[in-house]
Automatic annotation (TrEMBL):
Domain AAA+ ATPase: 70-217
Organism: Amaricoccus macauensis
SUPFAM superfamilies in alphabetical order: Domain of the SRP/SRP receptor G-proteins, P-loop containing nucleoside triphosphate hydrolases
Listed name of the protein: Signal recognition particle receptor FtsY
Self-association state and partner proteins as the record states: Part of the signal recognition particle protein translocation system, which is composed of SRP and FtsY. SRP is a ribonucleoprotein composed of Ffh and a 4.5S RNA molecule.
Origin organism lineage: Bacteria, Pseudomonadati, Pseudomonadota, Alphaproteobacteria, Rhodobacterales
């Protein structure tokens, strides 16, 4: 019977799946609409919940738009460890497989390890990686990389950035400078600003979106590490709160582990209705 008690336990479950309180209450209430006091089976409840969740996710499930512009400049932002470098490697590989020519700029010039890691990804994807000396100005590297990508007639330029969030002003200034400098070559760049978020940080992802939206003109999201986390529900909270496009999801550490975001499949998995769990 769909009564107050059942509704409360459903809300609890959604909150535990990290959908956030507001979104959980909304989804449960919509699911119960017109059904209160009725007998409903467990599978029906799951299906109804999955439907309500998919309704929130559908408008944001959009692949990264590809423009006729050449090179299309994609700035990749996010806190350290969120999976920026890995996502750039995976994206580069997918674009290459689709027949596009790609250049990567290793814009996190402060961390030698980040540059080396990108070089490895570049090799795997068969994509050149532009680097600069450690500690040098990332804006100047981005400018040179754009000039190089233009000269080569590349389709895409993917720019990695540093993500030190402990000093927001620094980060803001650095990102603003990169944008200012690349606009000297192309006033419309960057054409996309992707924010990479780590699903295992749960509700923290919401405050990261809040912060990065203020310091960069974020145009879309990639959520990484959705493999092996029970916290995927944060994607629903993100979609509900910000409505930013979710371009892709990371489901592992290897090059093929970046998938388009499928709202129905995601909603079914989240409510335990996916093929494996039925
Ligand atoms: N399981 C899993 N691990 C991932 C995924 N994406 C990235 N990782 C791992 O997360 C860790 C951090 O990823 P990086 O790509 O180095 O993250 P970053 O944001 O570039 O971080 P910095 O290099 O520190 O700036 C690495 O060990 C990756 O292998 C994913 O979708 N699933």
């Amino acid at each position: 019977m769909l009564d107050d008690e059942m509704l409360e336990s459903l809300e609890e479950l959604l909150i535990q799946a990290d959908m956030g309180v507001d979104t959980s209450l909304k989804v449960a209430a919509r699911m119960a609409e017109g059904r209160f006091g009725r007998r409903v089976g467990a599978t029906e409840v799951r299906e109804l919940l999955a439907g309500e969740i998919a309704r929130i996710l559908e408008p944001v499930a959009r692949p990264m738009p590809i423009y006729p512009k050449r090179p299309q400049v994609v700035l990749v932002v996010g806190v350290n460890g969120s999976g920026k470098t890995t996502t750039i490697g995976k994206l580069a590989s997918q674009f290459r497989a689709a027949g596009k020519s790609v250049v990567i700029a290793a814009g996190d010039t402060f961390r030698a390890a980040a540059v080396e890691q990108l070089q490895v990804w570049g090799q795997r994807a068969g994509v050149p990686v532009m680097t600069a000396a450690q500690g040098s100005d990332p804006a100047s590297l981005a400018f040179d990389a754009l000039a190089h990508a233009e000269a080569k007639g590349a389709d895409l330029l993917l720019i990695d950035t540093a993500g030190r969030l402990q000093n927001r002003d620094d980060l803001m200034q650095e990102l603003a400078k990169i944008v200012r400098v690349i606009r000297k070559r192309d006033p419309e760049a960057p054409h996309n600003t992707l924010l990479v978020l780590d699903a295992t940080t749960g509700q923290n992802a919401l405050s990261q979106v809040d912060i990065f939206r203020r310091i960069a003109d974020v145009t879309g999201l990639v959520m990484t590490k959705l493999d092996g986390t029970a916290k995927g529900g944060v994607l629903v909270a993100l979609a509900d709160r910000f409505g930013l496009p979710i371009h892709a999801i990371g489901v592992g550490e290897s090059i093929d582990d970046l998938q388009p975001f499928d709202p129905d499949e995601f909603a079914r998995a989240l409510t335990g209705l996916s093929a494996e769990s039925v």
